[in-house]
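Summary for the steering committee. One of the milestones for this cycle was to obtain a three-dimensional model of the protein with NDP bound, which we needed before selecting residues for the alanine scan. The sequence and ligand used are listed below.
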Amino acid sequence: MIKTAFITGATSGIGKATAIIFAKNSVNLVICGRRANKLDELKRELSEYAKIHTLQFDVRHKEDVQKAIESLPEEFKSIDLLVNNAGNAHGLNPIQEGSIDDWDAMIDGNVKGLLYVTKAIMPEMIKKKRGFILNIGSIAAKEVYPNGNVYCASKFAVDALNKGMRIDLNKHNIRVGAIHPGFVETEFSEVRFKGDTERADDVYKGYKALQAEDIADIIYFVATRPYHVNIEDLIVYPTAQATPTILNKDA
Ligand code: NDP
Ligand code: 8X3
C-alpha cells in the first residue's frame, strides 16, 4: 500500500495532475519543483485530502537535492513511491544549430537530476525492502525524431536507467517501471519553445492530445497494482498520433 509518494516536477502538467489524484486517494505527498509559489498553491489545494510537504529545489544541483531530502520531517521520510517526473525539452533544432546551454539543461535535468533524486531516496527503500520507482520517460526514449537529438538522448538515458535500476534493485524487492507518453498538453512545449506560446499552442491544435490527467490516471493505476505486479514499461499515445512524427490532424 502506498502511504507516501514523492513527486518531482509537481508544479505543473503531469506531476501536478499526479499529485492531485494521489492526494484525493488519501496518499500523503512530498511535492517538488523550483517554483515555490506553485508548490504552496498546490499544498493549499490538496491539504484537505492528505498531508502535503513541499520541497523546493532544482534537480540539477546535487547538494540541494541531498539537503532537501535529508530535511524531510520524520513522517515523510519513508517513501513508498518515487515518481521521477521533473524534466523538460529545451529547443528543437538540428544538432549543428543546438545550444550548449539547452543541452546542459536537458542532460543535467532529465538524466543527472533523476539520478540525484533517486540516489537520495533509494537507501530507505532498500532498508525496507519495499518501494516503487516510477520513471517518466517519453516516446522520445524509444525513437529519435528530427531535431530531437539531445532531448531524445536524455530520454534514451532514462530508459536505460529504468532498466538498470530494475536489474540492480531486484534483489532488494523494489519495483521499478517507466511510462512513456506521446504528446501531452502541458507547459512542456512552452518551455521547449522558450515562452513562444503561439508555437507551443500549435503543437496541440487540430487533434485531441493526451491531457496531464490521462497520464496521472495511468500512473495511479500502475502504482496501485498488487505488489507482486510490476508494469515495467508502458507507451501511451494520443489516438491521433502513431509515431513521434505521424500525427493525424484531420480525424
Ligand atoms: P511541464 O513543463 O508542465 O512540467 C515540468 C515539470 O518539471 C515542472 O513541474 C517543472 O517544475 C519541473 N522541472 C523541470 N526542470 C526542473 C529542474 N531543473 N528542477 C526541478 N524541477 C524541474 O511538462 P510535463 O508535465 O509535460 O513534463 C513532465 C515530464 O513528462 C517530463 O519529464 C517530460 O519530459 C515528460 N514528457 C512530457 C510529454 C509531453 O508531451 N508533455 C511527453 C512525454 C514525456 P519547475 O519549473 O517549478 O521547476
Ligand atoms: C515529449 C514528447 O514528442 O515532444 O517527450 O518528444 S515529444
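Key point for the committee: The longest strand covers residues 175-181.
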